[in-house]
Amino acid sequence: MNEVSAPELGGQVAAEWVSVEGKQATLTVPFAVTDESLQPLQQHAVLGQWQWQKQIKVAKLRNSQPDLPMTFGNVIVVSSGKGGVGKSSVSVNLALALQQMGAKVGLLDADIYGPSIATMMGGQDSPLEFTENNKMLPKQRWDIAVNSLGYLVQPGDATIWRGPMASGALQQLFNDTRWGSLDYLIVDMPPGTGDVQLTLAQKLPVTGAIVVTTPQTIALADAEKGIAMFNKVSVPLVGIIENMSYFSCPSCGHEEPIFGSEGGLRVAKEHNIPLLGQWPLQRQLRESLDGQQPFIRQHPEHPLAREIFATAQRTARHLYFQRQAESQ
Ligand SMILES: Nc1ncnc2c1ncn2[C@@H]1O[C@H](COP(=O)(O)OP(=O)(O)OP(=O)(O)O)[C@@H](O)[C@H]1O
């Protein structure tokens, strides 16, 4: 196994991930990976003689607040220093990609100032159901457990909440939802780095944080504030996702860096954290979010869909290896 180079799996294939029965070989990976990760094994001169299949058994990683109950495998918060950079779009697509890769995924919309997950994932046609013990039953959308203030309050009602009320409501949404057993819970944070965000970062058992930014200077400055906030409360950063990196002209293929170029990469390098992905501005992505038709399910071979899957894979991989390294 030592000689199999598999960057998507974090380097080499660990021998303990492999089990063989007759002509069937199974790769059991402790983080979400795409089926393409099997390629180095399938294409290997000797190992390629077996029929390879993938199995995901996501490792439950230590969270940053060990005194809090940890009912999920891994809580990933998605934040942005600045509004409108595509944080909710990233949260939705990361959740969808991780689910497609074989993980059990939940999605919590903690963005009280604009709970758009309910709109993007749908499910607003019927009220949220409750158990006998008054626990909320999340909506099941494309096999993802989803809860959002958007299912509970009228649009506009939550935006006037003050800090303590907002963070209290969000913690309740987190704690009082019957999530079931999850590998990853993606939390779409409110934009910014104020009291509500700081309280949430401290109160939720966060395994890792992602900062979403556009390459624009003004957005990058806010992204750095987000990085500083997570560092301050000792929440490990998984990396940066640069959204709206460029616009690819459908007619001539020219790539126009509308918001500047490589800003996310620069900030990632400066802070020594991974750049998890660079997503272009894509009309179909916006349409899919407006029309509740998941883009990566409809166009899995589209270059952006492939980048979304690669981003989800890097996220899961970095989270796993980072935490492994920290615990040694
Ligand atoms: N890569 C993209 N290509 C095209 N449209 C996008 C892309 N990313 C986001 N959008 C669109 O941009 C708008 C803002 O995105 P989104 O709501 O995800 O941002 P946000 O950062 O969560 O905003 P808020 O600050 O309100 O929470 C949405 O209409 C979304 O469909």
UniProtKB/TrEMBL annotation:
CDD domains the record matches: Mrp_NBP35
Pfam families assigned: ParA
A GO molecular function held by the record: metal ion binding
Quaternary organization: Homodimer.
InterPro entries (alphabetical): Mrp-like_CS, Mrp/NBP35_ATP-bd, NUBPL-like, P-loop_NTPase, YlxH/NBP35
Domain of life the protein comes from: Bacteria
Family named by the database record: Belongs to the Mrp/NBP35 ATP-binding proteins family.
Signal peptide: none
Residues holding ATP: 81-88
Protein name: Iron-sulfur cluster carrier protein
Species the sequence originates in: Idiomarina tyrosinivorans
PANTHER family: IRON-SULFUR PROTEIN NUBPL
UniProt KW keywords: ATP-binding, Hydrolase, Iron, Iron-sulfur, Metal-binding, Nucleotide-binding
GO BP terms in the entry: iron-sulfur cluster assembly
Function: Binds and transfers iron-sulfur (Fe-S) clusters to target apoproteins. Can hydrolyze ATP.
Gene3D superfamilies per UniProt: P-loop containing nucleotide triphosphate hydrolases
